[in-house]
Amino acid sequence: MINVLIERNIAEDMESTYEATAKRTLHLAYQAKGFINGETFSDINNSRRRFVLCKWHAAEDWYSWYRSQARKDMMSELQLLLNDQEKITLLEN
Fold first, then answer.
1. What is the per-residue pLDDT for 93?
2. Residue-wise pLDDT tens for the chain (93 aa)?
3. Which conformational region is residue 58 in: left (phi greater than 0), alpha (psi within -120 to 50 degrees), or beta?
4. Nearest CA among 23, 27, 26, 3 for reference residue 15
5. Phi and psi for 26 in degrees, rounded to 5?
6. Whole-angstrom Cα distance, residue 83 to residue 56?
7. How far is the C-alpha of 46 from the C-alpha of 27, rounded, in Å?
8. Is residue 7 within 8 Å of 63, Cβ to Cβ?
9. Distance CA 45, CA 40 (A)
């Protein structure tokens, strides 16, 4: 089992649009093979800095989702709302 931490910095005045798009993306991930669960977080000191922490059965499942057309389509929408590229970290314990 692995955890994936995604960090995103939202562009100014795009928070509400980001929320709706990020929820749709997470909903699609729930349908992906190997997805276990996901949570979203906001930085207490910077409301435009967001995190997604999701759990996958295996790294291969994550990479399959990462390369999927569904995620690429959603990221093309999300990227317009971000200041920079998202940062992805795979974690294990």
1. 86
2. 999 999 999 999 999 999 999 888 988 999 999 999 999 999 999 999 999 999 999 999 999 999 999 999 999 999 999 999 999 999 998
3. beta
4. 23
5. -65, -40
6. 27
7. 25
8. no
9. 16
Domains of the chain: 2-91 (3.30.70.100)
| Token output for 69 | 């057309």
Q: What is the 3-state secondary structure (H, E, C) of the chain?
A: CEEEEEEEEECCCCHHHHHHHHHHHHHHHHCCCCEEEEEEEEECCEEEEEEEEEEECCHHHHHHHHHCHHHHHHHHHHHHHECCCCEEEEECC
Token pair of 21, please? 């798009």
Residue with tokens 């699609």: 28
